[in-house]
Amino acid sequence: MKITLKNYEDIIGKSIIDELKLIATKLKGKKIQHINSTKVGGGVAEMLNRIVPLFKEMGVDVSWDIIEGNKEFFDVTKKFHNALHGRKEQITQKDFDIYTQTSQNYIKKTKINGDIVYIHDPQPAALIEKKKEKTQKWLWRCHIDVSSPDKNVWDFLMQSVERYDASVFSSPKFTRALKIPQFLACPAIDPLSDKNKPLNQKEIDNVLHKYEIDKNKPIVSQTSRYDYLKDPVGVIEAFKLVKKYTDCQLVLAGNRAADDPETDKVLAEVKEAAKGVPDIHILLVPPEHNDIDINALQRASAVVVQKSLKEGFALTVTEALWKEKPVVASAVGGIPLQIKHRYSGLLCHSVEGAAMQIRQLLHSPEYAKRLASNGKAHIKRNFLLTRLMREHLLMALALYNDEDVIYL
Amino acid sequence: MRKAKNPFYFCSHVELRESTGLKARNLRELVAILKDVPGSVIYYHTHVFLQQHQFASPEPPNAFAYWVTHTIGDEILGEKLGSIDISQYYTIRALREKMIQVIEKHLFDIQEIRSAPAGQEFDFTKSRTFVFKLPYTANNLSELVDVLGKISLYSLHFHMFAARLKFEKGINDFSNWITTSLGFPELAKKIGSLDPYTYTLVGLRDKIIDMVQNSPEWDQD
Q1: Same domain flag for B24 and B120
Q2: Which of A159, A241, B35, B132 would bridge with A408, disulfide CB 3.0–4.6 Å?
Q3: Residues A377-388: pLDDT tens digits?
Q4: Which of A184, A381, A407 faces B55 most closely, judged by CB atoms?
């Protein structure tokens, strides 16, 4: 079934969609071009897959391209990603050279045709070299938390970033001092995507059956890429503490993103940590089934966990709250924007804290239900795709007008 | 039903947030930065919860109060900031001065200046406001009520809060129009006397509709 704007009216109301369409008309005549590094896997690709067709339906002239990179390049940008998040990485001159060489290649090959060019994350940042006309506006969208980055990587990246007209961050907590404006736009989820749409019990049961998960035993789950920063081993440690008191099962489910070479290494460590512990399901969900399966696993969960050490925004938390699930999540990155402790979920800071809170939620279903209900209401108001689309339109308009009040 | 001299033109507004890069770690820094930031920063932080948590806000009505209470752990000052009655201020300048006065007085009284943990500083955010006309007008009270029922909460916020304080008209747009174009000063005064910061936006919309429909002016020529 083709999803259209009309489908969103039932969820957020006609007046919001009408206003969105009205704002979109103010960009008539402007071409918007999005560029990132992958069409599959990861939050950016997911988001672009959804908003590009909807913008087109509104009459906005929007396109989406990706840069070409090889494994060597993505190994380097993964290291950059971790280093920008503040993790210690061995970054050598060779790494910078690989980034520069590959950049020169994609700079040659990528065709720029937008009036507004929207570049996502560090991988394609060097494309700014193609900025020629003054009237062309370039935005750099940083989806990661760069509040305490590796200085060498940050300085290297700044050579490109500060040539943009403006930048976009998910939270003021993620930003650094920059010479260019820093817009703020939290990511968002699509309530109608396969990952978030309502599923019936049979669909959920089919997925549980496929992965041999007992539907009668409470499920604690974390659905994330296998990435050190998501701390899947920490989740297993917390689960072991919970399991002492409650007969439940842990589901760790993730997929493999095209630009993430670290998956196998982390997965091997996770399997090692789970050895000898009963009721742990470690799933590498195939990309072709990823969205529905993750949706079903979240919906089947009694408690959803996101015990990340560092986060961008943590859309997996948004997804779980939207499904009205009680969530235990680390107070990092964008998670505190989504969860107010003891109101719309529980925040934790350690393995022991996570375990304690998972136990509370498993043992107090009424309390868990109340948190989940508040969480859903908060997501509906603030973190659905239509709000992000509005901000995309506003950012484009703001590039042509720097007043505090802009009359459209 | 009385016809207005001039129609009411419904507008809406949406906001784009922008980081100022300014962060306060403690109350001294908070008050120092408060003195200098643009008015749009003050407006944003005193109205953000109203928009974000309008379904059922459990928090104090402004972000300064929330940070002082939950991050700095100063519940006394948090309560003082949270209970500043924004309805009584007609300019951002006056509201800013009141907040500065409250914090400075508190700073004079306390012995210890606590700092926020790293990463939990107060981030000053400004908002760019985009204003646009909606395709709706009202020529009498009945039409006003009809349109009120279908506009977004952003539009309601614009006419009830932003018009009065951000755009410093001193009065909400509905009361202004009801007085000047319909000649019903009593009804206008009733709407103007509402305590809008203590309602959810949905509740406020219902309250205004109810107030208009049940007023003696509803059937007046």
Answers
A1: yes
A2: B132
A3: 889 989 999 999
A4: A381
